[in-house]
Amino acid sequence: MAILGANGSGKTTLLKILAGSLEPTSGTVEVDGVPLRHTRRGLRRHRQDVQLVLQDPDDQLFSADVVHDVAFGPANLGLDGSEISERVAEALDLLSIEPLAGRPTHELSYGERKRVTIAGAMAMRPCVLLLDEPSAGLDPAGVEEMFHALDKLEKNHTTVVLSTHDTALAYEWANSVAVVHGGTVRQGHPDEILRDGNVMTAARLRPPG
Ligand SMILES: Nc1ncnc2c1ncn2[C@@H]1O[C@H](COP(=O)(O)OP(=O)(O)O)[C@@H](O)[C@H]1O
Ligand SMILES: [Mg+2]
């Protein structure tokens, strides 16, 4: 699913609310009908189902090398060493970044760092992966590598929800889109929503090609 909206429309805010890192001023987040509680326990439980990857990888990378960064979440769950290694190997494979395993994160390209942060989220084995503007700042080859990785995650039965202001990309990739504008969300099939001139004009978005 793609969350679409102009700059400042609230995409990042919506993703942070869904991830539990921001508490909504009204309304609730539900997972399978169960409301999220903003307690330590509630949030800990929620983070095992739903993982958010921020737009800027440098907000999320802080270990010396790729393996340690990807291992950080599982290590925090208190898993034993062999389980952590297994999850790290699986996540590196999903993002096709095995060759980066021993590399210091600060030596990697922006696109590589983005894929390392996604691997870190996948090592938590979430049901839902939230990605804030995963294609922003990538060159065309980087975007292609990113979406190749996202296809692999979908085949791994992870639900991917991403934000973007690129309507053409959303139209091509998403099964469902949600347009954020003026505090409201219009959600539906890409053909229904992205071909609706009124919705697109109001949201200050360009219709897909
Ligand atoms: N913590 C916050 N408290 C109040 N307003 C915020 C906060 N974070 C962002 N905003 C405002 O909310 C609006 C939506 O921001 P954001 O979710 O970052 O939009 P987008 O990701 O679509 O560009 C903006 O006007 C922004 O300035
Ligand atoms: Mg944003």
From TrEMBL:
Residues 1-207 form the ABC transporter domain. One of its GO terms (cellular component) is ATP-binding cassette (ABC) transporter complex. InterPro entries: AAA+_ATPase (IPR003593), ABC_transporter-like_ATP-bd (IPR003439), ABC_transporter-like_CS (IPR017871), ABC_transpr_CbiO/EcfA_su (IPR015856), Co_trans_ATP-bd (IPR005876), ECF_ABC_transporter_ATP-bd (IPR050095), P-loop_NTPase (IPR027417). Keywords: ATP-binding, Cell membrane, Membrane, Nucleotide-binding, Translocase, Transport. Its main location: membrane. It is found in: Cell membrane. CDD domains: ABC_cobalt_CbiO_domain1 (cd03225). It is a peripheral membrane protein. One of its GO terms (biological process) is cobalt ion transport. PANTHER family: ENERGY-COUPLING FACTOR TRANSPORTER ATP-BINDING PROTEIN ECFA1, HEAVY METAL TRANSPORTER. Belongs to the ABC transporter superfamily. This is ABC transporter ATP-binding protein. It comes from Rhodococcus pyridinivorans AK37.
